């Protein structure tokens, strides 16, 4: 079982700027979010913590590990956020103006993000021998990874709050999504499908 957790807030999050691979640190709010979230994972079920190498994810993971007295067992390059190329550092409004078709120079393909997300889950599971692991990563990365498991279009996934978690389980030879952004899977799937239908009607 893996809990895929979005890192705590950064100043760029607060300003609505795309971060991608830009290594923006947590701010004070983000550190407080991580400390407050730790209680949700107490009780002995979770056994280790890992993260993306980017500082905002690693620091979130280290705060969780310290608060829960769990081992922080390292970083995985496969958990890096999606590369946004020339769009990193700009706001969503600027993005819509400059690249309305979202064909952004230097942007990592969505399918490539999803593929390495699945590789990350398999590698973490293999290297932790059946343990239940907290995995701290990034919003776009989580959206594409989870969509590749659930079969829903990532465009209709919800925006993940800082420190929200989505639980996946490996069973019967495949990964299964159990929660999406702290919402039970079936409930979240209905909302995703509703957004997809609304988008189709509006097209």
UniProtKB/TrEMBL annotation:
One of its GO terms (cellular component) is cytoplasm. It holds the Pfam family His_Phos_1. One of its GO terms (molecular function) is phosphatase activity. PROSITE patterns: PG_MUTASE. SMART domains: PGAM (SM00855). InterPro entries: His_Pase_superF_clade-1, His_PPase_superfam, PG/BPGM_mutase_AS, PGM_Phosphatase. Keywords: Glycolysis, Isomerase. The active site is at residues 7, 81. SUPFAM superfamilies: Phosphoglycerate mutase-like. Substrate binds at residues 6-13, 56, 81-84. This is Phosphoglycerate mutase. It comes from Agromyces aureus.
């Amino acid at each position: 079982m893996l809990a895929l957790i979005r890192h705590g807030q950064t100043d760029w999050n607060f300003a609505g700027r795309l971060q991608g691979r830009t290594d923006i640190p947590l701010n004070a709010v983000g550190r407080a979010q991580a400390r407050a979230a730790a209680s949700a994972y107490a009780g002995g079920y979770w056994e280790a913590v890992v993260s993306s190498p980017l500082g905002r994810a690693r620091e979130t993971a280290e705060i969780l590990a310290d608060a829960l007295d769990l081992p922080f067992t390292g970083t995985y390059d496969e958990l890096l956020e999606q590369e946004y190329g020339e769009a990193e550092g700009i706001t969503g409004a600027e993005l819509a103006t400059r690249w309305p078709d979202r064909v952004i120079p230097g942007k990592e393909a969505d399918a490539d993000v999803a593929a390495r997300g699945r590789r990350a889950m398999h590698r973490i599971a293999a290297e932790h021998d059946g343990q239940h692991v907290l995995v701290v990563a990034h919003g776009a990365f989580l959206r594409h990874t989870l969509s590749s498991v659930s079969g829903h279009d990532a465009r209709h996934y919800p925006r993940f709050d800082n420190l929200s978690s989505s639980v996946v389980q490996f069973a019967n030879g495949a990964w299964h999504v159990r929660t999406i952004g702290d919402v039970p899977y079936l409930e979240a799937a209905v909302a995703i499908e509703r957004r997809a239908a609304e988008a189709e009607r509006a097209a």
